[in-house]
Write a structure and sequence with these properties.
Layout: H1 2-28, H2 50-65
Length: about 70
C-alpha cells in the first residue's frame, strides 16, 4: 500500500509540473483569457474568417493609438 501512495503522489506532482509548464509556455506565446466584447466563455470565436477579423481588429487598435 505505501508503494501505491507514493506512485500516486509522484503522478500528481508530475501532472502539476506539466500543467504549470504548459501554462507558462502558452502565456509566453500570447495565449490568454482576453475575449472580445461579442464573445463569452461559452461562445468560441468562429473559425471561418477568424484570421481576417484578427488582422482588422489589430489594424483598428493600431489606428486608434496613432490618432
Amino acid at each position: 500500500m505505501p508503494v501505491l501512495g507514493g506512485s500516486f503522489a509522484l503522478f500528481v506532482t508530475n501532472l502539476m509540473t506539466i500543467a504549470l509548464a504548459a501554462t507558462v509556455v502558452a502565456r509566453f506565446y500570447g495565449f490568454g483569457h482576453h475575449l472580445s466584447s461579442q464573445l463569452s466563455w461559452l461562445q468560441p470565436e468562429p473559425h471561418q474568417d477568424c484570421r481576417r477579423l484578427q488582422l482588422l481588429r489589430r489594424r483598428s487598435r493600431y489606428e486608434q493609438g496613432n490618432e
